[in-house]
Amino acid sequence: MPLAVLGGTVLAAIINISSTSIIFGIVPASELAASTAPFGLVFARMFSPLVGQLINACFIVACVGSLCGWQFTVANVVRDSSRAGFFPKFLIKGIPNGTPMAALISLTLVQTVMALMTISPSLNEQFMILLTLAVVTNLIPFFLSIGSLPRIMGLAGCEGRERMMANIAVVIASVYSLYACYASGSDAMVYGSLLTFAGWVIYGMMDRNDRQTIE
Fold first, then answer.
1. Which position among 46, 78, 111, 161 has the lowest Cβ density within 10 Å, counted as fewest Cβ atoms?
2. Ranges of each domain in the chain
3. What is the SS3 assignment for 121?
4. CB of 59 within 8 A of CB of 40?
5. What is the pLDDT of residue 211?
6. What is the mean predicted confidence (pLDDT) over 53-66?
7. For residue range 150-207, what is the model confidence (pLDDT) as tens digits?
8. Can you list the pairs that 120-129 forms with residues at least 24 positions away whose Cβ atoms lie under 8 Å?
9. Per residue in 90-104, pLDDT tens?
């Protein structure tokens, strides 16, 4: 699974960078910057407006499918976290076919509130706000993983070149992640931090295992 994720990410990056470089040679940068569907614009320029619309439709279908898959993935994580005692128990409830319905509905409500809070004059602006916010909040687990890797390598008894390579990877990943947070902007950092802090409060309130240990 880790190799599949790494390979898929590298392949997606290669395709994205290559295709982006190619379309800059077909359509002027000023037109691409003003377009809300640059790939559709490129295909419309290469073939016809109808082809461009078909490409846009394909992107919409792909986004809907990706969103549905992501929603079910996150909902299952929330349900399993509820079973472990980190979220309210009502989030465990589902329907007979296994769909975590309570978690799905709760996530949808939270996402709707966030979408309304970041409402903007244009959908493109609103999308960018939510995108940068998602980048910051998703980087938090990366930072925690990066920080724990040297300790994990030590506990596993890894020494020499293997541990050195892991430490180099930690430095590179840290620099990239910090830059990604910086590039997301101050608003995304503030809102992302508030969401993270709220999550820590919920975690502390629900984590009864640690509470019992202290008692």
1. 161
2. 37-117, 121-215
3. coil
4. yes
5. 44
6. 88
7. 888 888 887 888 888 888 888 888 888 888 888 888 878 888 888 788 877 877 776 5
8. 123/36, 124/36, 129/187, 129/188
9. 888 888 888 888 988
* Encoded amino acid at 119, one letter: I
Contact 187, 193 (CB under 8 A): no
- What string of DSSP letters covers 143-192? HHHHHHHHHHHHHTT--HHHHHHHHHHHHHHHHHHHHHHHHH-HHHHHHH
At 67, the pLDDT band (50, 70, 90 cuts) reads: confident
Place of tokens 């969103």: 67
CA separation for the pair 61, 119 (Å, rounded): 23
The distance of Cα 144 from the centroid of its chain, to the nearest Å, equals: 15
Q: Helices 123-155 and 101-117 sit at what angle, rounded to 10 degrees? A: 120
